[in-house]
Design brief:
- This protein is α/β, with parallel strands linked by helices.
- Strand 1, helix 2 and strand 2 form a beta-alpha-beta unit.
- The chain binds one RNA strand through helix 10, strand 25, helix 18, helix 20 and helix 23.
RNA sequence: GGGAGAUUAGCUCAGCUGGUUCAGAGCAUCUGCCUUACAAGCAGAGGGUCACUGGUUCGAACCCAGUAUCUCCCA
């Protein structure tokens, strides 16, 4: 036999991927005669490389897309990347630093030149990696969120929303990332539980030397920004200080004591220092009491000259130093540990600094309301639906979106400032100038008089337009593509970005196209290691996806990932999973090898009708089940259905039933059916295992130039007459087979030792019809119907029939008796429980007729079994 | 602190409208087999008080209440 004994994916994967591309199978265009099916990829970070999360996510998308393509839909999977402003800028800055270049020494244009160079060099890597996985994207449609067309879309949207009054500029407390040197949105802040220290500081009461008010704070370095100390008016401990002034420790500046019920009496000392520039709550308090704002921090988190002390020091260094100095001055009362929450930046990990700054915001209320509604009314379905609760909670408490970032890598905010400080918002400089002239009434205003905002937009402000912008829906809102492919069908993404991205795409879709961007959102879990830890570079617990593909084959890896990943559940990755996937490909390969080895003898009669009928019926049931799993987005279950159909039903049973003796020929009819079954199985498996199925497809027959399983028609379930009966009868026959095999195992007989079977049966027809199947699978030479048990035989009971395997000299009467008694005992217990149910009048009155009928049948079966078992015992 | 979800075999999970497809699947485990498609395999077997305590019901893994533990989201 010339076909390799084990399947070697490396030999075929690249070949088929190339062929598919040459054939243009992945290309999609608006085609009114076909039903559209579109998916947009969650654009990976342009600087990224493929990780396990991408593997899972893109495998699922590819399964959906490939199946849709086979179903005859115009399947369009749009790939692309996003520019990931903070992450990319940080990488470029780091790279430049290695070369001895400081970002500060570069102009914006110079920096962007470096960034683009870097993007050109590394930006496509991840997409190339996806091809190795088999992703059937329409690569001609590859988009990048910062390319000119998409940038224009972003700017248009900004201008539009500004005109609608939804974008505004204001001083707000933002989350400042001192390391990234930029504001980040609420959603990019991660709260971490930590133990922090609470410092009790002594503020001297003005005019009462030696009298102190003790204030507890976790941030002693901010006292220089204090503008008041607040007390609860109802706190009896402090009534004597109402109206007093206190002196800031070390600094000596006098600040008022204010009263506000906001202060909680039992937290800390009940006295709260008020630092409006560096705490959101303090800021609110300051507004209410009309207090000044003193900002003592620089962008990088160091103290500025307004602090007067520790100027130039980093906030954490300043904290250490001021604690030392306070202690030395006797102004530190005590330090205690307490559990607190540290806000950190998702991007850089730096501790977030609440900071007042002038930023651009997008009002959310108007956008959030309809976006909530379409999820509530299932116009967009989340899978699994438990995420609906989370989605609702967020949408009902949504805050305005801080969309400006103090970076260079990204779309620059299209706001232009006039010399007088006012601004206009316009798509480009010319229009801005026009507007500025109108606004100022100064017709002589020149472009050089305008200054464009320095900041760029949040990357999500590009990504939220993705399902529209990839089809050029902003540039040309009525183009054929967008009209045909939008709304897209399914979105596959991670729950972590449900709000960042999914919710905002829904908002954008409704706002700009009055239509939802997709119908289904499939939320994958996080890929973790076997111990449940998140995969991370620092832990080194993440395998390299490309190594995995090289070792186990893309098909093996794809199925391995899917075996254990129900929607929304984390995937505990274990190499055993991809091994299982690889083994599955090998199993299929060998089934194919077997059929390839058969010689046909055209004169042979068709002897396998029972097997063929049965497998046809099995196939029908499995297809219905498979389609149902797909409709419900139960991908693991869908795969498992195919897995069992192929491995158990096709290989372990069907092929064993029809397989001729070694080197014996097969009849043409059986071969025809078998090949046809195999082709159907290849189609059903193709979305999961595209490469091996394509390889076998072409090995199985000479194929025409366009005849690929990749574009074969998805099989329609074909009902089989009397299918349910066929399945039930085969099940009975296989039970008999299992009974014989069990005896072989118990008695240590080899799988091939010829045996005979005798039976006292109530279903002689079954034995007659399935004689061939049973004899073959159980390796029996003869099955005979008898009146009485043969001497010296081992027996078993299935259904109401008793079977005997004569075994001269190998019968252990005692053990045999014990076994039968145990079975009998169980059967009696079972019968009694049914009897009890049936003798309960209320049950008989209340239970539905079919339930009652089933119970009666149960009773009859049990009675029959008991009778047979007793007979067997008597015979011993 | 507020909210949501979960708890079923050693592991990962199914289990629909309460009732024979109700205690399941895959993996793992154990036993025996290198039986000419496959040892990346074949055959067989064992394994669970459905977290706990009550309640509703003729009947509960499923419905209700409480308890415990875990996870996630928000503050």
């Amino acid at each position: 036999m010339s076909i390799a004994k084990t399947y070697t994916p490396a030999d075929v994967e690249a070949k088929w991927y190339q062929r598919w591309q040459e054939q243009g199978f992945f290309k999609a265009k608006a085609n009114p005669r076909k039903q559209p099916y579109s998916v947009v990829i969650p654009p990976p970070n342009v600087t990224g490389v493929l990780h396990m999360g991408h593997m899972l996510n893109n495998t699922i998308q590819d399964v959906l897309v490939r199946r849709a393509r086979m179903q005859g839909k115009e399947a369009c999977w749009v790939p692309g990347t996003d520019h990931a402003s903070i992450a990319t800028e940080a990488k470029v800055v780091a790279l430049l630093k290695e070369k001895g270049i400081d970002k500060k020494d570069l102009t914006r244009e110079e920096f962007l030149k470096h960034a683009w160079e870097w993007k050109e060099k590394y930006g496509g890597i991840i997409l190339e990696q996806l091809k190795k996985l088999g992703a059937s994207c329409d690569w001609d449609r590859t988009r990048f969120t910062m390319e000119p067309e998409l940038t224009e879309a972003v700017l248009r949207v900004f201008v539009d929303l500004h005109q609608k009054g939804l974008i505004y500029r204001g001083i707000r407390m933002v989350n400042w990332d001192p390391q990234g040197g930029t504001a980040v949105s609420d959603e990019e802040v991660i709260a971490k539980d930590t133990m922090a220290k609470m410092y009790h500081l002594r503020y001297e009461v003005v005019g009462q030397a030696g009298q102190f008010l003790t204030v507890a704070t976790s941030r002693p370095e901010t006292i220089m920004a204090d503008v008041a100390v607040a007390l609860n008016p109802n706190d009896p401990r402090y009534t004597h200080l109402h109206g007093a002034k206190v002196r800031i420790p070390l600094l000596g500046r006098e600040i008022p004591v204010i009263l506000d019920e906001y202060v909680s009496i039992d937290f800390g000392t009940g006295a709260l220092k008020v630092t409006p520039a560096h705490d959101l709550n303090d800021y609110e308090l300051g507004l209410k009491h009309n207090l000044p704002v003193i900002d003592i921090l620089n962008n990088d988190g160091s103290l500025n000259e307004k602090a007067e002390l520790y100027v130039g020091q980093d906030r954490f260094a300043a904290r250490r130093n001021i604690v030392k100095d306070l202690e030395a001055a006797g102004l530190l009362d005590k330090v205690e540990e307490y559990a607190s929450v540290l806000q950190t930046s998702e991007r850089t990990g730096a501790v977030i600094e609440p900071r007042l700054s002038l930023q651009w915001f997008l009002k959310m209320e108007h956008l959030a309301k309809p976006a909530l509604e379409v999820v509530e009314n299932d116009e967009i379905k989340l899978h699994p639906p438990k995420f609906k609760n989370m989605y609702r909670a967020w949408m009902e408490n949504v805050h305005d979106w801080c969309i400006s970032r103090q970076l260079w890598w990204g779309q620059r905010i299209p706001a232009y400032y006039l010399p007088d400080g006012s601004f206009v918002v316009a798509l480009n400089e010319e229009e801005a100038l026009k507007l500025a002239r109108e606004k100022s009434g100064n017709a002589n205003l020149q472009a050089t008089d305008l200054r464009q905002d320095e900041d760029v937009l949040d990357t999500w402000f590009s990504s939220w337009l993705w399902p529209i912008s990839v089809f050029d829906g902003f540039k040309d809102p009525d183009n054929a593509d967008v009209n045909y492919f939008y709304p897209t069908n399914d979105l596959v993404t991670a729950p972590e970005i449900l709000f960042f991205w999914v919710a905002r795409m829904i908002m954008a879709g409704l706002e700009f196209r009055k239509q939802v961007p997709f119908r289904n959102v499939y939320l994958t879990g996080i890929v973790r290691d076997a111990q449940g830890r998140k995969m991370s570079k620092s832990l080194g617990n993440s395998p390299d996806p490309l190594d995995l593909i090289a070792t186990y084959g893309a098909d093996g890896v794809r199925t391995g990932m899917l075996f254990s990943s129900p929607a929304g559940n984390d995937l505990l990755y274990d190499v055993k999973l991809v091994e299982q996937g690889r083994n599955f490909t090998n199993k299929l390969w060998n089934a194919f090898r077997l059929t390839q080895g058969w010689e046909v003898d055209a004169t042979l009669p068709f002897v396998n009708a029972k097997a063929v009928e049965w497998f046809s019926a099995k196939l029908h049931v499995a297809q219905l089940e498979l389609d149902e799993h797909f409709e419900k987005f139960r991908m693991s279950d869908a795969l498992m259905t195919v897995y069992k159909l192929v491995w158990d039903d096709f290989c372990s049973f069907y092929l064993e039933m029809v397989k001729p003796a070694y080197q014996a020929p097969i009849d043409p009819e059986t071969l025809r059916h078998t090949t046809s079954f195999l082709e159907t199985l290849l189609k059903l498996m193709h979305p999961f295992m595209p490469f091996i199925t394509e390889e076998i497809w072409h090995e199985l027959a000479e194929r025409g130039p366009k005849d690929y399983v990749c574009v074969a028609a998805w099989p329609k379930p074909a009902p089989v007459t009397g299918g349910a009966d066929l399945l039930a009868r085969m099940d009975k026959a296989l039970e008999i087979v299992a009974g014989v095999r069990n005896i072989r195992n118990q008695k240590g007989l080899g799988p091939n030792k010829p045996l005979t079977l005798a039976t006292k049966t109530d279903d002689a027809a079954l034995l007659h019809d399935y004689d061939g199947v049973i004899r073959k699978l159980a390796a029996l030479t003869e099955i005979s119907v008898v009146e009485a048990a043969p001497a010296a035989s081992v027996s078993f009971v299935t259904g109401g029939s008793e079977f005997f395997v004569p075994l001269e000299g190998q019968i252990d009467l005692v053990a045999e008796k014990a076994r039968l008694e145990k079975e009998l005992e169980y059967a009696i217990g079972f019968r009694d429980s049914v009897l009890k149910k049936l003798s309960n009048e209320k049950f008989v009155q209340n239970a539905k007729p079919d339930v009652l009928e089933r119970e009666r049948q149960k009773l009859a079966d049990a009675e029959a079994k008991i009778a047979t078992l007793q007979q067997s015992l008597n015979n011993l």
